[in-house]
Amino acid sequence: MKIRLPYFFALLAFAACQSNSGEKALFTELDSTKTSVTFRNDLPANDKLNILEYLYYYNGGGVATGDVNNDGLPDLYFVGNRGKNKLYLNKGDFKFEDVTEKAGVEGYADWQTGVTMADVNGDGWLDLYVCAVSNYKGLEGSNELYINNQDGTFTERATDYGLDFQGFSTQAAFFDYDHDGDLDCYLLNHAVHTVRAYDQVTTRYLRDQSAGDVLYRNEGVSGPSHGSEERGARSKKTSTLLAPHSSLLTPKFTNVSEQSGIYGPAMGYGLGLAVADFNNDGWEDIYVGNDFHEDDYLYVNQKNGTFREAMREQMGHISRFSMGNDAADVNNDGFPDLITLDMYPADEQVEKASGGEDPYDIYHYKLQYGYYYQFSRNCLQLNQQGRKFSEIGAFAGVAATDWSWSPLLADFDLDGVKDLFITNGIVKRPNDLDYIKFLNTDSVYYQLTMLKTKKFDKRSLEMMPEGKVHNYLFRGTKSLRFEDKSEAWGFTKPTFSNGAAYADLDGDGDLDLVTNDLNAPAGMFRNNARQSAADTTGGRFLRLKLQGNGGNRFGVGAKVVLKTYDPSHGGPSHGGPSHGDSMQVQTLMPTRGFLSAVEPVLTFGVGKAARVDSLFVLWSTGEMQALAGVSTNATLTLKQSDARRKASEFVWIPTAKPIFSDLTATTKLPFNHRENLHFDSNRESLIPFYTSNDGPGLAVGDLNGDGLDDVVATGGKNQATQVLLQRPDGSFAPSPQPAVEADSLREFVDAALFDADGDKDLDLYLVSGGNEFFGKMPEQNDRLYLNDGRGGLSNAPTGSLPPMLDNKSRVRPADFDRDGDLDLFVGGRVVGYAYGQPPRSYLLVNDGRGRFSDQTDALAPDLRRAGMLTDATWADTDRDGDLDLMVVGEWMEPKLFLNEEGKFSILNSQFSILKGLWHAVAAADFDRDGDVDFVLGNLGLNTKLRKSGEQSALRMVVGDFDNSGSTEQIVSYNLGGKWYPMASKDELGKQLPGLINKKFTDYKLFAGKTTEQIFSKGELDKGLKLAINQFASVLLENTGNNRFAVRELPQEAQWSRVMALLPTDADGDGNPDLLVGGNFYQVSPYQGRYDASHGLVLRGDGKGGFTPLTFAQSGFLLEGEVRELKTARGPNGPLVLVGRNNQPVQIFGKK
What we know:
Blueprint: E1 27-30, H1 32-35, E2 63-66, E3 75-78, E4 86-90, E5 96-98, H2 100-103, E6 112-118, E7 127-132, E8 144-148, E9 154-156, H3 158-161, E10 169-175, E11 184-189, E12 214-218, E13 253-255, H4 257-260, E14 270-276, E15 285-290, E16 297-301, E17 307-309, H5 311-314, E18 318-319, E19 325-328, E20 337-340, H6 348-353, H7 360-369, E21 374-375, E22 379-384, E23 388-391, H8 393-396, E24 404-410, E25 419-424, H9 433-439, H10 442-451, H11 454-463, E26 469-470, E27 472-475, E28 483-484, E29 494-495, E30 497-503, E31 512-517, E32 523-527, E33 541-547, E34 559-564, E35 583-587, E36 591-592, E37 596-597, E38 602-605, E39 611-618, E40 623-631, E41 634-639, E42 645-646, E43 660-662, H12 664-667, H13 680-683, E44 698-701, E45 710-713, E46 722-726, E47 732-735, H14 738-741, E48 748-754, E49 763-768, E50 783-787, E51 793-795, E52 807-814, E53 823-830, E54 842-846, E55 852-854, H15 856-859, E56 868-875, E57 884-892, E58 895-900, E59 903-906, E60 916-917, E61 920-924, E62 933-937, E63 954-959, E64 968-975, E65 978-981, ...
Parallel strand pairs: 18-21, 33-41
Antiparallel strand pairs: 1-32, 2-3, 3-4, 4-5, 6-7, 7-8, 8-9, 10-11, 11-12, 12-13, 14-15, 15-16, 16-17, 19-20, 20-22, 22-23, 24-25, 25-27, 26-29, 27-28, 30-31, 31-32, 33-38, 34-35, 34-39, 36-37, 39-40, 40-42, 43-75, 44-45, 45-46, 46-47, 48-49, 49-50, 50-51, 52-53, 53-54, 54-55, 56-57, 57-58, ...
């Protein structure tokens, strides 16, 4: 692979000013005349070293906060990349004194990056550890450890401690991973572009001495221990307060990376490091964010000194260019969630001028190399009770913040919910598409890489545009929707901000912010949530200082659980969280964000609560202390020596007996759906959603008359549909069916078992779809197989079905004409090579002997081209005694066809406001008022296509825009009252070169242009126009007289595309509940995968309302792309069958 040059990194700026929205600014920026903090990280480009030579030239430096002189006030330490580092002592009232020279902490290395404060030697005083880049492009030095001498001075002793790493360091975190009572060290390093950085993922197991991460074990002052392994790799060591300059009592750190399961490859571009107990087992796990093509790593602590990497098991996708990250509990459910930052801009012009997602072929090339699913956006990974993560950044409104560096999750407004601060900006944008185009010319590439002349360096740098962007501040809410308060709360000034930290600098109880900016003074921002410690008008707080034992004197890794009493909830909450402020959890872990470390004190906002109902401290070495009735607006010191109970005995997240249990392994249904590899975009490059992966379909019924439910599972193209007969023990065995197997070339996407010919046994109907056949190809015809009464299937006589040369989606049997036999509705899915054009759908009338005729035009003419249908259901909606038909599909509103004496007409109602990307519909009386309601599964709210919040909409124009004979789809989203194309210049130019490439010769001309500016009115007018105005999955509550009220389903049902719905009384309370399955992967890379669903049980209240159950409550944990949910009778009760694309069927039973 050719190595093209640096492709990233730098900084942004940060401003705090009064809001002109009328809202009081939460933060006020303070300048150096007030604070005396004059630090600047100046980094002008020069001839010897610049972003062309070192891709992370503009990544900036870190900042750490902590009380280094133990006077009760947090101090500040800033890192300069090439200049001197600075230490400022806090004198109170936002006044600081520069004591750098006296303290001896200016730094020696030529290039320094991250910093953390930690009590490395366990003497009760904070030390400083500074990372450096060395042995590269003439840079010299090593990582530096400044041991606090307890007299205002520090001594550099990294070599003595074994922490003098030389290489490409980013940041370090000190924590007790083996729970032996002292602090170990994880050192995050980053690669530089070399040939070894681009390789198969198998090279991940080869260690690189400069770029690979390192896990250092603290061996203590007496060397390695060989005692009990009950609480980790080694036994606990005796604590000794270390005297200044005592080499005899110096802890020694040993590199244990390889034996502990830590990767250290040359391709690990480590920029983000988060340490948290993600699965709440009491042991700290590690998340590493890697830039570029390398995957992020999620190391799960195995409690024996080793880690297991588990990112792929738990996450559906990750950020493509992972930068800084942070872990905290954003929804107050007791589990730490994770935010990772990337470079996806909110500005339309910047987005279209910048490199973003890979083209589809490159994307799949990386997958074939072994890399994971990565997309260029901020990812908010919501922890699903330590089992899985759901990435909901788009739903939460935090996916796009441009070139972002440091995220900090903290409660800045003291309302009990975490807010999100993000630093931003890059001095030079090396992902600018015109710059990349300039580089990719052979002459420029030759002169830039071979000749390396100053003239061409200068020209290259000039081609990169500046990327100043304001820092972002989002207010967290209980709904998990973050509100962008950047302007209102004082952050409007464009800057280049990198590292950031928070601390209560003025002692008033709220968290102030500090940033390390490039080529500008450091930013300092006073939080105005409380004007003073005695303020009674703002939110209330509780600050906790921890005093640990042994070598962990600041209690790093300790977890604090707060349960507060909110009078508006009607009483104290002694149970689990309820998406309110009843429970908060924080872990003391200073290294956070990017290159930086926060104050080692925990600050909780509690809203207006005057006291905390209960407080629990869980120390990392297993002790626990409980306090009750703790007054707020106070700072407490909690001592480990007061903890008398065992943390393992404390259950602070309530347990529940789950409704379902996963029986997949024991039930043994031997079917694994195999989706053939087919790229719809090779035919239609602008198609937004693939239609070739709609299977499998499932059908359930007693085929062989033995009283047991059997299963039919449809296969992908070249995979035979299987008939699986249930045995008395509940297992399933394949039943050879030569007639069915002979049709394996077709891709069947749905199945129905029903008595077609009136002989009292179940026959089989298979729906042909998959969007691979087109035109007059006979493989598009559906198939009908008749049952011999014993479960043997044979082809129905010729002429039993009319010709149906279409890609279809669903079959739904029903006696809609009430003549005693079962008729069929068959839904049309897509027209081959013409996505967006409405295919044909069918009403097939049964003559009673299994011969079906197409009566659509006579009985339901509006149904023939009703749209790109995905699902349908029969129900007597108007309670007149016959069955009506509800159909849903993509780029359309739901359509309800009322049955009037065997003829169907569309109900003219309010459904025009529900134009969606529907994929599932189910009917039940959810409000128990005697009529039928509908639930509809949609794309959801967790999508990049929603650019305008609740006013978001899409348009698609389908036509042959350049008269080439092919069909194009121009999809546009609304933003700021205008419509912009989803496709990039390259994507449009590839399909429409004559229209696009001649008109827009560079990316700058194209960027920011509306769809109407790119295409003429005549070009747009000649196409078919479709629209979307509803993204949410909803309940249509039947209110009588053919009127329906629209209710959005709970937010958990909006995190991914809903593909399957199953009404059932899951909990046995008499009210219909709802099982939900989803996910959809085959979409344009711009959208990324819809993969945040892990199955959902919505408990119905009998009034049309639903409550989502946790996995602990439901036991309904699904994997992959769900396509079907069906019930079947098993020997021990009902089963739920889950049909999954390209995976085996999952099976659940009630406990």
